[in-house]
């Protein structure tokens, strides 16, 4: 499994396998040293060595140009033989999944420091935890105790696992190839010349992007779960019907769950969480969402995306939640409000620059001279409608469990329809998974 994971990763950029191995060795060593020493100060030194090394690698490959620019320090680092190659390489290719596997490795060291985890003494086994290929490049971000125990437990293949894995793989591929990729072509067309389109087309592109990024990342998560389940390994669910959420706090309990819980356990709670009053809570929330935005990308638009989520989170927590109404109409309004606000803030997520996002926001408000109308093929509308109806109104469990409820003939008709759609309607243009860039 370890060899397969490194071969898999090397297909992206073989030189970056060394970077992942270096991260793994450092965190493995720091975990052992934290466990061995009895002096709290020394434990803290080893913890910060682990965190600092991971942040340094992220900084050199992901954030250097954004944070340093043309400063004197940047020029010295450019001139150094030790750092110049990393900076130059990072300009052109971001190591795939670096934000995911560094967070997964940091969580292990943090758990050892807290006394919640006994460190692993076998380096190769620890490397298999960090590099497990189904979730390596885009999550979910697994915890050591959950994934490691499954990786190193003897397993006899079960028909139930193989059957459920196939269902997850088929549906995940359907979401990615048929829905997300076809929506991506429409959204990309709009953003290539957004000023030329009408306000109605801007609203349509914004709506479609909300479902593009959802189907894309949800599809990947299902593919990761399905691939892992072929080996009897059960990865955590990363999505739980987020677009039915009634508030932004609830939304972030349902969207990218592995990242949200990571920030909760390793940043929000250490900063004080909700135990020290509203001011500390507000501060912790804003730090978490600022960091989350920066995690998503070295760009001011991503930071604004994160900050906007923090503001909406606090608005719902301290203001909107004070309205005590209990009826279905009010619940539907809350769901519509939550989805609409998240959809609008995704403009920052999709825009490359602040000026571009400003143009889109102006167009949403009707301030546009554009006259072009965005065209959507009928088959895309049908596929999107099927997904929305299934996800929002019908499917209540994970898709592999839900399929089991139906008769053999109905299940196989659904499988055949999805496979046929993938074959006939898959986009000709290659659209990488959205979260591969993180």
Can you walk through the features of this model?
There is one protein chain. With 438 residues, this protein is mostly helical. It folds into two domains: 2-151, no CATH class; 159-364, no CATH class. Helix content is 70%, strand content 0%. Helix 2 (16-36) runs antiparallel to helix 3, helix 2 crosses helix 7 (123-131) and helix 10 crosses helix 15 (328-350). The mean pLDDT is 88.
Oligomer: single chain
Please write the string of helix (H) and strand (E) elements.
Answer: HHHHHHHHHHHHHHHHHHH
Mean pLDDT across every amino acid position: 88
> How many distinct domains?
2
The helicity comes to over 70%
Overall, the morphology is globular
What kind of sheet is the major sheet? none
Unreliable runs? none
Total strands: the figure is 0
Distance between the termini: 24 Å
What integer value in Å does the Rg equal? 23 Å
Helix/strand/pairing category: mainly alpha
How much strand? under 5%
| Tally of separate helices | 19
């Amino acid at each position: 499994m370890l060899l397969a994971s490194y071969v898999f990763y090397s297909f992206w950029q073989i030189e970056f396998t060394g970077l992942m191995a270096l991260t793994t060795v450092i965190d493995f060593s720091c975990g052992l040293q934290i466990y061995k020493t009895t002096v709290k100060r020394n434990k803290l030194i080893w913890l910060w060595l682990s965190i600092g090394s991971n942040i340094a690698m992220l900084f050199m490959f992901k954030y250097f140009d954004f944070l340093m620019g043309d400063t004197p320090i940047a020029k010295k680092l450019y001139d150094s033989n030790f750092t110049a190659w990393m900076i130059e390489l990072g300009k052109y290719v971001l190591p795939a999944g670096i934000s995911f596997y560094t967070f997964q490795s940091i969580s292990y060291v943090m758990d050892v420091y807290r006394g919640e985890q006994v460190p692993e003494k076998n380096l190769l086994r620890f490397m298999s935890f960090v590099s497990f290929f189904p979730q390596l490049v885009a999550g979910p971000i697994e915890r050591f105790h959950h994934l490691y125990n499954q990786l190193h437990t003897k397993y006899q293949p079960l028909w139930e696992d193989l059957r459920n894995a196939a269902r997850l793989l088929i549906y995940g591929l359907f979401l990615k190839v048929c829905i997300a990729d076809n929506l991506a072509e429409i959204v990309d067309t709009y953003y290539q010349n957004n000023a030329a389109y009408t306000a109605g087309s801007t609203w349509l592109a914004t709506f479609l992007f909300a479902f593009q990024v959802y189907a894309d990342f949800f599809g990947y998560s299902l593919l990761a779960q399905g691939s892992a389940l072929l080996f009897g390994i059960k990865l955590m669910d990363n999505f739980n019907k987020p677009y039915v959420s009634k508030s932004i706090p609830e939304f972030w309990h349902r969207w990218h769950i592995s990242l949200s819980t990571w920030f909760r356990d390793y940043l929000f709670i250490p900063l004080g969480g909700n135990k020290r009053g509203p001011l500390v809570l507000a501060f912790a929330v804003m730090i978490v969402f600022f960091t989350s935005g920066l995690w998503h990308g070295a760009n001011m638009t991503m930071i604004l995306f994160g900050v906007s989520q923090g503001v909406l989170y606090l608005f719902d927590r301290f203001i909107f939640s004070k309205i005590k109404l209990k009826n279905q109409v009010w619940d539907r309004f809350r769901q519509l409000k939550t989805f609409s606000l998240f959809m609008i803030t995704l403009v920052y997520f999709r825009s490359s620059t602040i000026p571009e996002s400003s143009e889109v926001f102006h167009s949403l408000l009707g301030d546009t001279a554009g006259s072009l109308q965005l065209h959507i093929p009928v088959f895309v509308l049908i596929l999107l409608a099927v997904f929305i109806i299934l996800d929002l109104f019908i499917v209540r469990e994970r898709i592999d469990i839900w399929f089991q409820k139906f008769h053999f003939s109905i299940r196989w008709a659904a499988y055949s329809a999805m496979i046929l759609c993938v074959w006939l309607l898959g986009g000709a243009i290659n659209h990488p998974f959205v979260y591969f860039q993180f």
